Amino acid sequence: MNPNIELLSDHHDVTKLDCGIPQLDEWLRKTARISNERDLAKTYVIADENGVVVAYSALVASSIESTALTSRARHGLPTTLPAVLLGKLAVDMDHRGLGSHLLGHACRIAVAVREIIGARFLFADALNETARNWYLSKDMKAVAGSNVCYARIKDLAG
Fold it and tell me: What is a single Pfam family found in this protein's UniProt entry (predicted)?
C-alpha cells in the first residue's frame, strides 16, 4: 500500500503526532505551516482518514560543501554544490514503516528538481545515530564524523 502523501494544509491536524522526539513533534505543530507560507520549507504529510498527521517530511533547496563528501563524490566539482535537503522526517510511533514512503517521495522530488533547475545531491542531517543508520540502510552514504547522509540524485533516478 502506498500512502497518500500531500502538502500540509489547514485541514490537517498536527496536534497528535508523537514520534518520540519532542523537537520534531513541536516543529510540526509550531513551525511547519509558517515555513510553508514563507517558502522556507515545504512540508509533506501522511494523514489518517480523519486528517490527523501520522508522518511528515520537510524539503528545502540547499547546498552542500563538496569537502563534506567522499573524494570520489567530489572529484572535479566546485566547492559548493546544489542540493535538496530532507530537513525533517518524523513518523508517529504507532505508524512505523511510513518513513520509507516519505524518503521515496523526497527522492522523487529531488529527481524532478534536478531535471528542472539542477541539483546534485539529496542529503539529510540525521538527529541521532539511529536515524543515521536508517539512512545508511537506505543506500545513502555518510559524511565522515557527522550524522549527515547523502545520495547522488542521478543515482536515485535509475
Answer: Acetyltransf_1
